[in-house]
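WARN no homologs supplied; continuing
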Amino acid sequence: AERHRFRTGTGQLAELALKDVAAAMLGHLGIIGEVCVNGVDRSKSGNALYGAYGQDFATACGNRVMVIGLTDRQWTGLVRTLAMQDAIAVLSAQTALDLADEGNRYRARDAITALFAPWFAARDLATIAPLFDAAKLTWAPFRSFAGAVQLDPDLSPDNPMFANIMQPGIGLYPVPGSAVTSSAFDRMPPQPAPVLGQHSEAILADILGLSAGQIGALMDKGIVAGP
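OK structure emitted
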């Protein structure tokens, strides 16, 4: 809409309904198409990666890790690192599913997870991390939001997208700016949300063209409030 106005000088009304946003997301995720084409009502899958294999596991030290076996390289590397080649071959025979196929791995995800879970439960994160890094697996610590905020530098001012902002009436916490990094412009830093009435006078004066006396009269009558 902004580009159209810039190019043509013509304005327009652009509407964005939250219901339509939700409906569009269902379509983008393939949920609507899956019902219409395959007659399948997609069920909840917890933290499992939809359509392939990916799952979080509890470790011996009380942490959790997420592993992904989407591509052939990811899957074979994961199975090899866990020394599960024979167990996966047996499972494939039992289920009559070729687990080299990512869709079949999703279908057999519960059985695969049952095979893998004891391996993780017997090891702590300090043991798992170097093994997985050396094997170049696709994995990461799986954290709660509280754990991520406390431990993940990507959710802190170490990430240039974030800045610690003192929000009036709330306190100090990291706030993100734009997620876009431009080569031509610096990212605008995030700002505290304005308090109610903070910009009332500026809007009335600059946009509506009211005088100081007119603004004062509105405030005296309680029609307009300041901060």
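The radius of gyration is 27 Å.
OK
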